[in-house]
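hi! just following up on the protien thing from before. the input was this:
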Amino acid sequence: MRLIDITVLLNIEASINQGKGFDATTQILQEFYGLELEKKEYAILSHCWSEHQQEVSFREMNKLLVMSKEKRNETRGRTGYKKIINTCTQAQKDRMEWVWVDTCCIDKKSSAELSEAINSMYRWYAKAKLCYVYLHDVCDTIRDSWKNRKEPKAIPRWFLRGWTLQELIAPKVVRFFNQKWEYIGNKGELAGILTEITRIPVMVLWNGMQEALSSADNAGRPSVAQIISWAADRTTTREEDRAYSLLGLLGVHMPMMYGEGKNAFRRLQLKIIRRSNDHSIFAWGWTRKSGWSSSILADGPGCFRDCSRITILKPEEFTKDLREKGM
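and the predicted 3d structure came back as:
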């Protein structure tokens, strides 16, 4: 896992702003593995990518100190770079030393690294000490303005993206900020509103996925179909990412094959069927937009839109219900 050294980056930024020199051999990004990574405490950013090539890639951040002054100033002027600096500034206030931002901490030119990152993403977010949600299209701190489902523009774009689903559920501490980096509230405080927008049960937001899955109460135990239903109305730039963004939530690992289209979601379902006896994977059905699928496997998460109340029933609970009904 590659992390940004907060102190190093902010000191370099201060030096540039003050017209001072800096050591071009300084490492802004550092990699950690195994036991060393387990001991690291870091903050993590959840956000929507900017358009028009405004984000800063790994290779650009890695060469920030050795590129030409003109190129460096152009990079530093991007909204994506300012987002990284503001993330580091907030993390430093929270006494963190390291931060992870997907845009510049993953070398997306390397298919092997990208595949490893996607399969590790849920775990990385779950292990983060703090997760900052940056809502670039929210200008105030009024929480109730998110709730108007009749007016789609009132819902921040962050809630409509595929990857941000796991980024909301996995971390224990999630803090929301508006476009000015003003604090709105945390996941616990906003649980009621978040449930209304996302259909994710409050208990999952409060206690996390693992505790919900091991709950003694079957009414609070999310099924595979219910988990997929949370992604039904979310979109991704690449069609395959609708499946890949669900891997961590469903406890599945599989290789990335960009270009396979809808087959990615079919592969995901087959993985689930092989490793789980949760038959809710077959609970999907007809949808107004696409009608019936031509396969026993669903074409995409949208097919599970109406499965948000399906929970897991253990075999002994099922037989008990049958006996109580005299069957």
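The first strand starts at residue 2 and ends at 5.
The beta strands are 2-5, 29-31, 43-46, 98-100, 130-134, 174-177, 183-186.
cheers
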